[in-house]
Amino acid sequence: MSIAAGLLLALGSAVALNWGWIAQHTAASGLAALTVRHPLESLRVLFRDLRWLTGFLVGLGGWALYIGALALAPLSLVQAVSAGGIGILALLAHRAGAPLSARERLAVAVSTGGLLLLAISLVGGANAGHHAHVAAIAVWLVASLVVSCLGALGGASLAPGAGLGLAAGVLYAAGDVATKSIFAGGLWLLLIAVVLAAHGAAFATLQLGFQRGRALATAGTSTLLTNALPIAAGLVVFDERLPSGAYAVLRIAAFAAVVAGAALLAHEPQ
Q1: Comparing C-alpha atoms, which of 86, 84, 92 is closest to residue 25?
Q2: 73 with 3: CB under 8 angstroms?
Q3: Tens digit of pLDDT for each residue in 99-127?
Q4: Which among 62, 67, 99, 217 would be 20 to 30 A from 87, CA to CA?
């Protein structure tokens, strides 16, 4: 029962977070250029805009729902349900006046299909896993920092803003992995500083991306990686075991679909 409640919270979180990101993207793309060289002035520009501030506050509410979901359900399942938010994001982007390209529609379809496969795989049960070893958490967080830096540098094969969306997604995911560890209490509470740093850096990176690329290339890529990477961490770091037989195949296919959707969104159309 607690797992089901956690997954419902994860779904509510996905709705709130993606609505918030669309609102922030719409507002930020029309504001004066943001820059890391003048962070305080950039923050003032954002927080003075009512549309952006509304999106930000709704997103905070979504994050609170996400924390509740993590307390009740396995990390990999919470993230996979949250990945369904890409469909919500696409719908909201379309309603906001941004037509979807064929590649974006395919990415949304692949990711949504993965969520359906995940729902079917839940018939095979879910394993809550174990608390991770400190070395495993450390390796994951350091690797996340390296990959996020590479993503922020961008590349010729990435769509405009997608590299920043990728970096934000990796950083948000690192914060989520640290958040799951915090529930063990004790010295693990020190990871609160890591969560705040990772989410703060991800926030700044994503806002920069909003001014450089489309909503799905930035927020969409971030959303899918924010969900896909903790799914992998749940299995690799927290030992959340797969169900047996065909259900395991379905769950792996569901996770792969999320990654494929992110790749399609981030790739620069030819």
Answers
A1: 92
A2: yes
A3: 778 888 888 888 778 777 876 776 666 55
A4: 67
